[in-house]
Amino acid sequence: MDPKKKTVGFVPDHDADTTTSPGGSNNTNTVNSPVSAFSNTPDLSSTTNSTTSTPNPAGSAAASSQPRSINTSGARSSYEPMKSSYEEQWGLTPTSRPHKTASPRDGSGFPAKEQGGLNKKENKVKTSGLGIQPNAGSASTDGPQSSNSTSSAGPASAGGPPSSGNKGGSQKPSAPSQKSMTKAERRELQEKQKAEKAARVSAGLPASGKKAAQVLNQPNSGFSPNPSKSLATSFPGAEAEKAIAAAESTGQARRREKLTKEIGLFAHLDPPKFANTALAPKDLHPAVVHAGLQMAQFKICGANARCVATLNAFRKAIQDYQTPPNTTLSRHIQTYLNPHISYLVTCRPMAVSMGNAIRYLKYEIGKNLELPDEDARALFVEKIDNFIRDRITMADQVITSLGLQKIQDGDVILTYARSSVVQGLLLAAHAKGIKFKVIVVDSRPRFEGKQLLRALAAAGVPCTYVLLTAIGHVMREVNKVILGAHSLLSNGALYSRAGTAVVAMSAHERKIPVIVCCETYKFSERVQLDSFVQNEIGNPDELVNDQNNNFGHSSTRCHPSVRGANSGDAASAAAGAGVLTGWRESRDLKLLNLLYDLTPSEFVTVVITEVGLIPCTSVPVILREFLPMMQQ
């Protein structure tokens, strides 16, 4: 016997009892439907009650079209013989998935094969897990549809297939698919979704609606979720303002500040770094920790100064290093120095000069792995001293001697910010008796040109100090521009303090030669075409006009008369407060403090190095030919 017939209780000799409820009542009309002995298809031509004889009111199921009934014995008498006619009516194939039967007892719509193997207790547990309440007023039957059920499982009046049971006896309307929407409706939906995503991001939450809802549901997230409306739905208008206010008052404020205060074009760069000795490894040498703190606070700035401070700190660390048992100094010293290097990187991004010096030190360590501890210690200290002497100190002296040939009496030399090499060259030219004048161009926020101005003025060099905004006015008097360099890239580009490119391009526009002083250990194999790919972001608070930042320069503070303050009121006491105080609370204000820029090679006339005067495009030649000989 067919297992399906066995499941529904097929009785071939019984007639079908069909229930017809046009008005939703419980009236029962019996229709004799003879069944052929060779097929399961009933003879529908002999039925006396059809769907055309009784009109079906709107909103009710077409019960006359489904020959379902339950006889007095509680068994399905002729449901299975009508199965093939259902397959023909609804276009189902014999291999199709069996439709789900709905019982008013559970209303969950399990397949008949699964439902037949569950008892009443199991059905109750199953429906409670789905959040579906059983219909207490319905008869407990095993048939596909009860006649007094609250919801009809038969086909709808529109001719749809039989629907499964649902919660509460009513079908919840589903959201329309995008295929059925018009183009304008789809565009409106997309705009709404974009607004919801932007509101979630502004609130310091994940962009995904599901992840945002998970954050709200966490007990320690800092947000108070609204049970009637989740973040996965929308954040329109005032709701977004409330969510942002909640984020600012919780632990999410820091993340919101990062999302809203960073500039999108420079989001790939590392944020400003601050030294944290509490998170540093405990076995760091004090000299390295001290150097890192000074670099983070910009008390040590400049490529040469940072490189020398790093090498001196490593020299002290090597001198005080105690070799662990069962190893040698040469083989373990590099493992010992790696945490120190990582700490310096966390304090401030490593300069090109520092990277080349550390690479040189590791190269020397790798060449001498078999030396005794004391010999290796003395050798490494000597190599550090030789690097500082040959590649920095002596290189600067050679650059100074070569640069003196380019300075003549009556020259007006313009320089930007402060470079230790340029400062030494100008002081040497003045000591030699050359009569010249210097124009120092400076810019916010660090005002490094003031240190150069102080040194030149103390030596008696005639100087003029202007800001970068006045370069167009003073450039007409200049006949030479001498600049320092943070690094020279392999494509000939000059990587230096932000504002250098403006000075070089202004001089190139007026046919004024641009001379760059740079040591060869600052040459880099990196290729860079703009200032966006690689740069360093400084602390944006340095741009704020208050006396606590910008190192207390009076030129960065507003005069009380500008704010309309009288000398006797409370505003005069806050005369040092800047106009951008509290800028972090402003949602639409973002500050960017880039430390370096890139000058293309066509704006540089000549580069003075310890190997001679070369064009900036000869950097690859120096890296390929001269540096291997210097390392031997």
Automatic annotation (TrEMBL):
Q: Compositional bias of type Low complexity: which residue ranges?
A: 18-69, 143-174
* Statement: the UniProt record of this protein carries the keyword Cytoplasm: yes
User: Where mainly located?
Assistant: cytoplasm
- What keywords appear on the UniProt entry? Cytoplasm, Initiation factor, Protein biosynthesis
Is Ion transport set as a keyword in this record?
A: no
User: Gene3D superfamilies of this UniProt entry?
Assistant: translation initiation factor eif-2b, domain 1, Translation initiation factor eif-2b, domain 2
Q: Name one GO cellular component term.
A: cytosol
Q: Where in the cell is it found?
A: Cytoplasm, Cytosol
- Stretches of Basic and acidic residues bias are at 182-199
Looking up InterPro entries in the UniProt record yields: IF-2B-related, IF_2B-like_C, M1Pi_N, NagB/RpiA_transferase-like
Instruction: Provide the GO MF annotations for this entry.
Output: translation initiation factor activity
Task: Enumerate the residue ranges of region (Disordered).
Answer: 1-211
Pfam families with a match to the protein in the record: IF-2B
Which PANTHER family does the UniProt record give?
Answer: TRANSLATION INITIATION FACTOR EIF-2B, TRANSLATION INITIATION FACTOR EIF-2B SUBUNIT DELTA
Q: Which family does it belong to?
A: Belongs to the eIF-2B alpha/beta/delta subunits family.
Subunit details for this protein? Component of the translation initiation factor 2B (eIF2B) complex which is a heterodecamer of two sets of five different subunits: alpha, beta, gamma, delta and epsilon. Subunits alpha, beta and delta comprise a regulatory subcomplex and subunits epsilon and gamma comprise a catalytic subcomplex. Within the complex, the hexameric regulatory complex resides at the center, with the two heterodimeric catalytic subcomplexes bound on opposite sides.
Protein's name according to its UniProt entry: Translation initiation factor eIF2B subunit delta
